């Protein structure tokens, strides 16, 4: 007897090759993050290649904001936006963006593989500063400058500043609720952390990132680019952060870690990483670009020695911020099914059960019972923008729609089609635990550790998550607090 198998509707996280999204046909897969998946596509009847970033959440407003910012920017070092649209699905409408296809490798990888010199580093950094100049002149800020969001082409080093998913511009709607905006902790400026220290209890205080923040992040990027290591963390709670205190000395010169760094490059990296925001070229990316280019021209023969950078092991304080947003697959194996995500040990776990004991009835029972008790305790979280990283991507980041995944050379294989869909658009779990939230070990029945805090999974909750629950990889969670804690509505 013939049996008719049900036809599974494509999942935005794992479209089969040949799928049409508007006039675009999927010809390859690049990577997946928590808010979007990037595909290589072609327009029907044309031969050109483009990068299509498809939302994983119905009606994700961040795509419109990213498109609005990209339309304002004119730079040879920023991918061109070619279009945007809405993909109709039975679960709702998913926005997408279509951008210039960029073949390149992340900045840190390029520096090591091409044996880049100080002069080459100066020129690449000057071009990234030009990309920031165009962004700032358009009234925007990138807010997640880092090595994995800079793709470099060729031995001469033509960089592209990628992933504007965490970007902002004047007049844009506010989409987040934490004190600090989206970004990567390892690259945040000292003044951003100081603001949070002062206003973390304030219900409406929001730090407004400025060009000085972008330049500082470029400085941290440059530091790691030429030394293979991060400078001390800027987050006040971390060991070594005292160098970033007001009137602090700042980090040691890059040349102390890598003697091959030329004096010109050494001085400019330190200026970009200055403790005082005004010392970072007074927030002028144009001045920074000019200084970097002029240094490349006047530097002596020593600037042509290879930097011989060897990327050091990522420190523990940075690891928790790394590897979160984008899964960028460069090897030949097929990408994992959409319903699976890497677990903390590197094994593949079902997304809804990451860190949980699969099949535990107590997870469901206690998670659901905890909902009414915890309602209103958690503060509204900020969009996590890009979770991504690991020292390369890997640098952390919040922008949950990184384009770095849309540019790294990979072997193209067809993703596996699955029936699972992540249709919701809820508040993402914040980068750090709420004030008073339980920290590991998360040993209560049903608890799971996420980003340094303990959470309960609401496995039967409908998407999008309700206001008192938070989204993590397509599932809803509630924060776990000590039993004796009094309810509070304070923001983290």
């Amino acid at each position: 007897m013939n049996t008719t198998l049900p036809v599974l509707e494509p999942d935005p996280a794992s479209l089969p090759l040949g799928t049409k999204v508007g006039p675009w046909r999927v010809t390859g897969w690049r990577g997946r993050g928590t808010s979007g998946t990037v595909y290589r596509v072609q327009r029907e009847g044309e031969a050109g290649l483009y990068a299509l970033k498809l939302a994983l959440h119905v009606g994700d407003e961040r795509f419109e904001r990213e498109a609005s910012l990209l339309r304002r920017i004119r730079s040879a070092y920023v991918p061109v936006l070619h279009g945007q649209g809405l993909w109709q699905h039975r679960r709702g409408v998913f926005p997408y963006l279509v951008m210039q296809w960029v073949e390149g490798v992340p900045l840190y990888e390029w520096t090591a593989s091409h044996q880049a010199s100080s002069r080459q580093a100066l020129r690449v950094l000057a071009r990234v500063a030009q990309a920031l100049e165009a962004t700032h002149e358009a009234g925007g800020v990138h807010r997640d400058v880092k090595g994995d969001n800079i793709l470099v082409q060729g031995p001469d080093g033509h960089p592209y500043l990628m992933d504007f998913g965490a970007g902002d511009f004047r007049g844009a709607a506010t989409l987040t609720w934490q004190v600090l905006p989206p970004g990567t902790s390892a690259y945040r400026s000292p003044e951003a952390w100081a603001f949070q220290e002062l206003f973390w209890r304030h219900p409406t205080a929001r730090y407004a990132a400025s060009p000085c923040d972008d330049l500082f992040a470029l400085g941290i990027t440059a530091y790691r680019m030429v030394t293979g290591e991060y400078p001390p963390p800027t987050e006040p709670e971390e060991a070594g952060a005292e160098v970033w205190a007001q009137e602090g000395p700042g980090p040691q010169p890059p040349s102390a870690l890598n003697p091959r760094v030329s004096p010109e490059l050494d001085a400019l990296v330190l200026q970009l990483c200055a403790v005082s925001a005004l010392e970072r070229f007074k927030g002028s990316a144009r001045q920074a670009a000019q200084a970097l280019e002029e240094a490349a021209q006047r530097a002596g023969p020593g600037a042509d020695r290879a930097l011989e950078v060897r990327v050091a092991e990522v420190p523990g304080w940075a690891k928790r911020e790394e590897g979160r947003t984008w899964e960028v697959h460069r090897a030949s194996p097929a990408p994992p099914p959409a319903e699976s995500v890497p677990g903390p040990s590197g094994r593949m776990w079902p997304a809804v059960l990451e860190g949980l004991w699969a099949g535990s009835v107590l997870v469901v029972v206690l998670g659901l019972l905890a909902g009414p008790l915890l309602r209103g305790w958690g503060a509204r979280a900020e969009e996590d923008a890009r979770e991504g990283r690991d020292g390369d991507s890997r640098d952390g980041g919040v922008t949950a729609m990184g384009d770095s995944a849309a540019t790294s050379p990979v072997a193209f294989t067809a993703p596996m089609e699955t029936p699972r869909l992540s249709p919701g658009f809820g508040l993402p779990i914040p980068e750090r635990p709420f004030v008073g939230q339980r920290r590991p070990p998360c040993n209560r029945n049903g608890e799971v550790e996420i980003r340094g805090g303990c959470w309960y999974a609401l496995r039967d909750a409908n998407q999008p998550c309700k206001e008192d629950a938070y989204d993590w990889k397509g599932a809803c969670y509630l924060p776990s607090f000590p039993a004796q804690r009094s309810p509070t509505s304070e923001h983290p």
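Residues 20-100 form a domain with the Phosphorylase Kinase; domain 1 fold (CATH 3.30.200.20). Confidence is low (pLDDT under 50) at residues 322-425, 484-492.
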